């Protein structure tokens, strides 16, 4: 299964991705995992715990876990996940999405927006999602902007909800319906 974005593509996350040293390296890199809301990763989980987590994702019939590649270079750069959490979430058509761009050399190039749009479009078109939800730590302004750029709406903020670097920050809650998802980047019209 190949899911094509504009500058990225995704495939199902397989054993080769789990065993790729880059993947485990990302999970041990504080700058990569700081904002993904998995505090246990900040403690430097042993590989066996990471492997157990991935095996749980594989076994969950309500979850789709993808490896993300930069299409031009063919580089494995991150992951994306769609999770309906349980059968009730599947029946209600509400899925939660999340991404992790682990390869720092690809940060700041708009790829997060491409990944979010691609995974959202797949969830709506192929999995029949009615609504998608996501959460982000408020200091991660870049990912919040990426969500908003593709049509997600901020639905709320949970004040001082998440711990970060000895303090607390807001948990930004975002949501999107299929008709709100912007299918392609906004084209800037010249001002003349």
If you had to describe this structure to a student in words, what would you say it looks like?
The protein has 192 residues and is α+β, with helices and mostly antiparallel strands. It is 32% helix and 33% strand. The protein is built from eight helices and eight strands, in the order ββαααααββαβαβαββ. It has helices at 15-18, 21-27, 30-33, 39-42, 47-59, 87-92, 111-125, 141-149, and strands at residues 2-4, 8-12, 63-70, 75-83, 94-101, 131-137, 153-164, 167-177. Strands 1-2-3-4-5-6-8-7 form an eight-stranded mixed β-sheet, sandwiched between helices. Helix 7 crosses helix 8. It is globular. The N and C termini lie far apart (44 Å).
